[in-house]
TrEMBL record:
Enzyme class of the recorded protein, top EC level: hydrolase
Provenance organism: Profundicola chukchiensis
Cofactor annotation: Zn(2+)
Keyword field contains DNA damage: no
UniProt-listed GO biological process terms: rRNA processing
A Pfam family per the record: YbeY
Listed PROSITE patterns: UPF0054
Name the UniProt record assigns to this protein: Endoribonuclease YbeY
UniProt xrefs under PANTHER family: ENDORIBONUCLEASE YBEY, CHLOROPLASTIC
SUPFAM superfamilies given in the database record: Metalloproteases ('zincins'), catalytic domain
Predominant localisation class: cytoplasm
Family stated for the protein in its record: Belongs to the endoribonuclease YbeY family.
Top-level division of the source organism's lineage: Bacteria
Amino acid sequence: MVYFFTETEFELQDQDFYRDWIYACIDKEQAKIGNVNVIFCDDEYLLEINRNHLQHDYFTDIITFDYSDESEINGDIFISIDRVSDHAFEYDTTFDKELARVIIHGFLHLLGYNDHTEEEQKIMRQKEDESIDFLYHDSEE
């Protein structure tokens, strides 16, 4: 099951819509979801997690903790709404599209996709784009 929580003033609207989209994306990857928590927070909250758990002292848009096993994906996905907002402006896209990109990015990590090398980043971006196209194509029908 996918659960949404917030540690900031942001509240995800139409959670069932996003949940259904995530399930469809995971299904396309022929994977099964166990329990995944998506926690929306601000920059400072995520910076503390970054410092305490990863020993990184910088802002980031997402941190994913993977607890998956061979049978299903499980984990915690922390997303900074501040970074999503800034990146939407920086990349000249809507907040909703950038939020969707970051959400699915976390799930792709849980599916085993990485983004350390240039080739991995290319694959990750392709998977993100496919998922976002699926979201917006599906929601227009």
